[in-house]
Write the C-alpha cells for this entry.
Amino acid sequence: MSADALQVRGLRKRYGGLEVVAGIDFTVRAGECFGLLGPNGAGKTTTLKLCLGLIEPHLGEMHLLGEPVPARAREARARVGVVPQFDSLDPDFSVAENLVVYGRYFGIPERTIRARMPALLEFSALAGRGDAKLLTLSGGMKRRLTLARALVNDPELLFMDEPTTGLDPQARHLIWERLRQLTQRGKTVILTTHFMEEAERLCSRVAIMDHGRIIALGSPRALIAEHIEPQVVEVHGPGLAAWLPTAAPLAPRREHVGETLFCYAADPEPLLAQLRGRADLTYIHRPANLEDVFLKLTGRDLRD
Amino acid sequence: MAKLLAPPALSPRSLAVWGRNWLVWRKLALPSILANLADPLIVLFGLGYGLGAVLGEMDGMAYFAFLGAGFVCSATMYAASFESLYSAFSRMHVQRTWEAIVNAPMTLEDVVAGEWVWAATKAFAAGLCVLAVVAVFGEVRFPTAVLALPVIVLLGLAFAALGLAINALANGYDFFSYYMTVILTPMLMLSGVFFPIDRLPEGVRAVATTLPLYHGVSMVRPLLSGELPGGWPGHLSVIVAYAIVGLYLAVVLTRRRLLR
C-alpha cells in the first residue's frame, strides 16, 4: 500500500492502428486535486476509463487506492466516486430514488442512504428537492445531483470528467466551491477539463495531454513560469500590419493569429509605451495564464 | 481476446440491476399488466372463437385451447425480446444507465445478468397473464399446468439471452426490426403456435425443430391440457442450451462493444 491515490506507469491503449494513450506515467498524491488537461481527442477520457478498470490497457500498470487495476478494479471502485462527462441519471426516478438506487450498486442499504440523504442534498444545493422528478431539473441541478450520486459511497477519491462543461457561471462556481470543500475534507479529486481557468483555480497539479502523451506536468504556476513569458499583450486593429516591425524587437516571442498579435514578454512596458495613444490599434495587457501554456504546447489548430 | 471470452465475473449485486428496472416498472405497472391481459384476450377471442368456429378441433382439442397454449409461449417470447432489445438498448445506449452502473463496483457481466433475469421476469409475467386468460375460459387443466410455469421461465431466459446478444450488435432501434422480421416472425409461424408442425413440408419441419419456441409449445400445450409432454427432456435441453449459449454470446458481444 502506498500513500499515492493513483499510480500510472507506461500506460498504453490502442484502437486499431491509433494509439489513443501512448505511454503515460503520472502519480496523484492522496488529498490533492489533479487536473488532466488536453484538447478534444487527447486521450483524457480514455485515461480515466483505464484508471477505473472499465477498459483494458494494452500495456502498463495502474494502482488505484493501492489496488492493482484492472485486476482488482471492482474493489478499487467501491472506494471511488465518478462524475461522468455525459448525464447518466435515471430519468424515470426522482432525485432521492436516483441516490437510493445508485447506492444499491455499492451494496449500501436503503436506510443508510436515506439517513445520508439530507447531507448529500444539502452539499449539492438540492435540499428539499428529494421528491423532484428528473424532468423538472435544470442542467446545473442535474450536474449537482450527479455529484451527489458520486458521493453516495463516501469515496476517498473522486473522478470528474469535464464537470462544468455547459454550466452557467453560477452553477460552475458552486461546483468549484464544492470541489474545494471535498479536497479540504482530505478527498482526492482527479478532473479532466479543457477550461484552463478551472484547472488553474482548482488543481494543485496538472498534466497536459496531447495525442495520447503527457507533454507537461506540474503546478499551474510552475508550468507558466517554465514555459512562457510572464506578461501578454494582445494587439489587434487596422494598423497592425504596419506596426508589426515595431513590435519585433520589443517582444521576444510573438504569435500572429488571424487579426491578432500575441506578444509575450518579461517586461511589457516598452510595448505598452508604443501602443498608448494609437487610435488604429486596440490592445489588452494581462498576466500569462495556463491557457497560454496550453496553446503554446498543443498549438492553435482546431481539434474536431 | 482471452479477456473477451473469459467466463463472466458476477456479484450478487447484479440483482440491484433487476431492482432498478423493477422500481421503474412499478410506476407503470397497471397499464403494463392491462396490456399484457388485453392483448391476448382480444386475439384469442378473434382467432380462438372466430377461426375456431370454422376449424372446429385442432389436434384433438378445441382450437381456443390449442391456440391459447401457443400464445402463452409466443407472448413470453415477445415480452423477453422487447425488453432485451428496445428497453435494454435505451438503458445501454440512450440513457447511459449501464455506463453509470459500471462506474460503481459492478461489472458489465453484472449488468448483463441483471438485465437478463429482468427481461425473463417480464416475459414470465406476460406468459402468466395469457395463461390466466386461457384458464378463465376453462381451457387449462391443473395440476399439470403448474409444470408449464418453469417452462415459461426457461423460455423467457432463452429469448432474453438471444435479445441481449442482438442488442450488443445494434447501432439503433431500426436494427431490431430485422431481428423481429427475419427471426421472430418466421419462428412464430413455424413453431406450432397456430397449427401443428406436421402440416409443414419435411425440410421446413426440420428447421422448426431447431427453434426454441417450438420446444416451448411442445411442452406447454400438453401440460395445459392435462398431459405430460412426451420427449420433454429433449425439449427442455434445447431451450436450456439456447439460454446458456445465448447468455455467453450476449456477455462476449457486450464486452466487445463496451469494454474496448
Remarks:
- Residues 229-287 of chain A form a domain with the Alpha-Beta Plaits fold (CATH 3.30.70).
